[in-house]
Description:
The chain is mainly alpha-helical. The chain has six helices and no strands.
Amino acid sequence: MRLGSVCSLVARKPSQQQLSSATSRVVLQCKQNQYKFLMNQTFNNTTIKRSYSEAAEEEEDDETKLRRQLANLPKPLLDPLIVPRRRRGITVESFLKNIGKGCEEHVDKFTSWEDLFTSKSLKLKVKEIPVAQRRWILKWLERYRKGEVPGYPQTYLH
């Protein structure tokens, strides 16, 4: 029964039973329309939310892509071949003596301060310095480049 037929029933002065059944149908129809409206609104809202979340995911993908590119950029490092200035009057002999572990035995294998600080593992191997001492010397060369002086506690350049 349509709304127009309900209106015609009301105009004809229907019986109580017809009126109650017509009223219940109108109420039911209104509830169904409200339900459809709410469902439609909910669907539209979720569609909007989905489009926002998809855009957010795309932004995250772009952000992730940028982070990956940034991580792959070359990083500024201390050049291992930089020869630092001598601090506190240190010499090759005093440097090797102060770092310990028997490294002072190899003083005669280095001709100068520059020769010591331009050394790499292979060059030290050619000079027949044992592996443990090679690693120790290279570690201390890097520490000295960063500001620590062997034999002097916590002397970092900041």
